[in-house]
Structures are given as C-alpha cells and as structure tokens.
Specification:
about 450 residues, six-stranded mixed β-sheet, Rossmann fold, alpha/beta, Four Helix Bundle (Hemerythrin (Met), subunit A), 3 domains
C-alpha cells in the first residue's frame, strides 16, 4: 500500500509539502511530472500534471528518495508546491487515482520508519515531541532524546540482562554441570547493579515529564477570591469567565503558558466552599484533585476569607504560594499564623505586586527542571516499564537466592521484556496505536 499526505501545515501558505511513500511512488512521479525522472535526493523543478490529462496543476520541486535509504525505508517522494488549498486538493485527487494508494493516517510515515528499522520507539516519540515543542527547554529535551543516549542506555542494560539470562538458562538446561563460582557471584552482582541503575533513573523527580507536559500549577481558594482573574492575567487573555457572582467556575480550566522558557500548565478551579449544588460539589472535588496533582498551588484568598480551620489548613504546604488578593479594598493586619507562610499581598484589579508573584513562581520553577541524570524519562509508559523491570529484578534476586532457577529465569525474561518495550525491541503492537496517533498527519 502506498500512502500520501500533506506534511506541512494545513491552510494557505507559501509552500506546501506533500509526502508519498510506498511501492507506487516511482509510477506516481513518472505519470504526474514532465521530463526526465529526477535523480535521487536532488531537488528537481518539475511541472506537476493532473493524472489522466495534460493539465498542469502547479510547478514545484520534486525530491525522489529511493528505499531503503529514505525516512520510511520505502520508496518515497516529496512534492514542494505552492501552498494553496486548491493545489493541494488537486494533487491529492490525482494521487488517489493510482491503484493501492490512500491518504496516510496520523503518524503513519514515522510508524513505517519504526517498522522498517529506521528509528526506535524512543526516537519516534522524540520526533513527535520536537514537532510539539513550544519552549526552548522542550526543544532541547527532544533533541537530546533523538541523539540516542537514552536508547543506548536502555539497550545496554537489556544486553546485560540477556547475558545473565543465558547463564541462568545454562544452569537449567545442564543441571549436572555446576556453573563456576565466579559466574554465580557475578549474576548476583550484575543484577543488583542493573536494578540500582534503573532505580537511579526512576529517582528523577519526574523532570522529563515536567518538561514535556508542562509544570502543573493549580489556582485554588474560596469562591470569588479572584482566581479566574489571576488566570486571565497570567495568560494575557480572557481564558476564564470573571463574575462577581460566587461559584461561576464549575470545571477545571487550563491554559498552557511559556514562562521565561519554562512550559507551564496553569489551572483555574472551582471556589472551595460548602455547597448543596451537586454540580458545584463535583467542581470542588475536581479542584481538590487538581491541587493534589499539581507541582505548585497558588492559594488565592482575600482578607475576609482567611480561615485556617477549613480547607486552607489542609492545602498549605511547601508546594504552595499564598496570595492575599483585593488589597485595594483595604485590609487589617494579618495574624501570625498566615504571616509565617510569607504571603504575597496584591490587587489583581490594580495589577499591584503581580510581578512579585511571577518572580516567586519562577523561583519555584528553576529547581524543578534540573536533573543530574543523562537518561531522561519523558512518558508515563517508560516509567511504568522501568518500575515493572525493577520489580521483576527483585523477584529474580529472591528466587535466584533460593535456588529456584526456573521461576527466576521467568522473572528475568519479564524484566528484559519491559526494558525492550521502551525502545521497541519486543512485540509492542498493542502500544503502537496510542504512540503514533499523537502525531500529525503527514508525519
């Protein structure tokens, strides 16, 4: 099957890039362009002709990438044409008339690259991350993963596990032949060493995921304290509805921000108060869940709503910044109980001291995007596989110590499998769909 798609952005543009990959690619170039067939990997100016006629669709650049030396590993081509909707539609319509040609699914070009051994899963995911990168730190992380250091590390650990497994299986297959003492000793040392290395990678404070997904900030507090106004100010646009009517926000509203190069996801939540309204009660429950999951909570209160006997007492922690809003309305001295948390006094209405809040947020961010690990975990599936690998290694060490080699070998196989799933060294068909569906069409 040959696939095709617009790889550049949709809509009107100066240039549009249409990709084609599959066995029909050469025939498509031959029948849809005039003159000689282009040389491999050379940009060639061509008239692009509507199939079944001599009508010219456009004049543009055609690049021929013969397989297997192409991005997908198959015969592949790119048409660089003028980026009008009409031109793209006309080329798509002509390509679709060839036998065994269809429009590509999201991420299908990169999926073919993986299936044909051109990239591993980590690199495929880093390509998606690079396309989606909104901040400099996200771009740097995607490039770092694409360089292959993480893949090399996981492959190296997997090879070491396979070597241990071969020794264990030798012991099972030839029980009458005793393994040398130094080999048995090395099995224990190596398995513990590998487990410790993986545990060190896991102990990363989730820096990789924070960079990729964004640092999570939840704005929480009682109703009508100014939470939605703060979200709108930080976002520099009207994200949330602002009203003097308490309880306006019922759901969690998110905005993605670039704060001095740091990716941030900031959430406005429902006002926390006693309520008999079922919808509002669900909103409050979501607000408390957001506070629990967030990396940082901005607790917005006003002088008259300071109450340490209620929710405030439960939510104040090291990952909190307390904001006392509406100082433009006047306030009396604040009691010592809240003063020890170094609150920020501001007026969102008059934009007073908001720069102090932003600087405090930045200080919290700085230490959350630093990791001493060269190997970064950027997705939950990586973390789950590594955690499963560690657990299987612990099981292996226990059974190996007891001399139960058959069951120990199975635990080691599972540990090896979980490591292999990260880079795609084993059958991972069940996770391919979820990975590549996140790509844009044409990639």
């Amino acid at each position: 099957m040959t696939i095709y798609a617009l790889s550049s952005g949709s809509g009107v543009s100066g240039i549009a890039v249409i990709r084609i990959s599959g066995p029909e690619t050469r025939e498509i170039i031959t029948k849809m362009t005039s003159g000689y067939f282009p040389k491999a990997k050379q940009a060639t100016l061509k008239k692009i002709i509507k199939i079944g006629s001599k009508e010219v669709i456009d004049q543009g650049i055609v690049i021929w990438f013969p397989g297997p030396e192409s991005y997908t590993g198959e015969d592949m081509a790119e048409f660089h044409v003028h980026g009008s909707i009409a031109v793209v539609k006309a080329i798509h319509a002509s390509v679709s008339k060839f036998a065994n040609c269809r429009l590509a699914e999201p991420g299908e070009f990169t999926k073919l690259a993986f299936q044909n051994g051109k990239v591993n899963l980590l690199k495929a995911e880093s390509i998606s991350d690079l396309i989606s990168a909104e901040t400099e730190i996200q771009r740097q992380q995607a490039i770092k993963i694409m360089s292959g250091r993480s893949s090399e590390k996981f492959n190296s650990l997997r090879e070491k596990l396979l070597k241990i497994l071969s020794n264990i299986e030798a012991k099972i297959d030839f029980p009458e032949d005793d393994l040398p003492e130094d080999v048995i000793k090395n099995i224990k040392i190596e398995s513990e060493k590998i487990r410790n290395e993986i545990e060190k990678i896991l102990n990363d404070q989730k820096v990789g995921e924070r960079i990729r997904e964004g640092f999570k900030i939840a704005i929480i507090g009682p109703a009508n304290a100014g939470k939605s106004s703060l979200l709108n100010y930080l976002s520099n646009r009207d994200v949330a509805i602002v009203s003097e009517i308490a309880g306006t926000t019922r759901d969690v509203i998110e905005a993605h921000l670039n704060l001095d190069g740091y990716p941030v996801v900031i959430s406005d939540t429902a006002g926390i108060r006693e309520s008999k309204n079922e919808i509002e009660k669900k909103g409050i429950k979501l607000a408390l869940k957001s506070a629990e999951d967030a990396d940082l909570n901005i607790i917005v209160i006003e002088p008259k709503s300071i109450d340490f006997t209620g929710f405030l007492n439960d939510l104040v922690s090291e990952k909190s910044i307390i904001v006392i809003n509406k100082i433009d309305l006047g306030y009396e001295s604040i009691n010592q109980q809240i003063s020890k948390f170094n609150p920020i006094f501001l007026s969102i209405k008059n934009e007073t001291n908001l720069d102090e809040l932003i600087n405090r947020i930045k200080e919290k961010l700085k230490n959350k995007f630093v990791s001493s690990n060269e190997t970064l975990i950027t997705r939950e599936r990586h973390r789950q596989s590594l955690e499963a690998c560690v657990q299987n290694l612990k099981n292996f060490e226990e059974k190996n110590y007891q001399g139960d080699f058959d069951k120990a070998a199975e635990d080691l196989r599972l540990a090896t499998r979980h490591l292999g799933m990260i880079v795609g060294k084993v059958d991972v068909e069940e996770i391919l769909g979820s990975i590549f569906s996140d790509f844009c069409i044409g990639k």
